[in-house]
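Subject: for your reference before the review

Hello V.,

The reviewers asked for a structural picture of the protein, and I figured it would be easier to keep everything in one thread rather than splitting it across files. Below is the amino acid sequence we used in the manuscript, unchanged from the supplementary table.
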Amino acid sequence: MLKLLGSACILAGGFLVQGARLSERRRQWDTLSDVLTALRRMGEEIRLARTPMPLLLEYLAKDRCPDAAAFFSETAECLRRGESLEESWRREVSRLPLPPEDVRTLEPLGAALGGDEEEACKAISLAAYELAKHAEERAAERKGEDRRAAALCFSAAALLVILLI
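And here is what came back from the structure prediction:
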């Protein structure tokens, strides 16, 4: 009976590991998607409405996932406290739950946003293009990777169960 209980716990652990992995990936995907949408909207607002940056960042924080909303609202709050846009942008980007290549793509954007309208719009377009390209690459790799990871988690759990029995 004790072996069966241990086996059930090990199998449940395999399911939990896989669930946590998928949850983290979903969180990254939601954050990336919302940041991409917000960047595209930011380019339009800078070009057409010329909204001041703290107000624009607060506007972009609305209707976003918690991580993206916190990123934009914290950056706006830092600007209101008198910090530079480049410094606060870089710090808040590093807190986003994104892969390192996406963080490296977003970091230099803070310096460009402090410049003129044309420079800012070009930098936003380039960053959005790079992020979209990274997302497409990851999406193509994701199905196979998910299957391999699930097989590994459940195979390891099954092996431990067999060893216990």
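For the response letter, the relevant points are probably these. Residues 23-164 form one domain. The mean pLDDT is 87.

Happy to draft the paragraph if you're swamped.

O.
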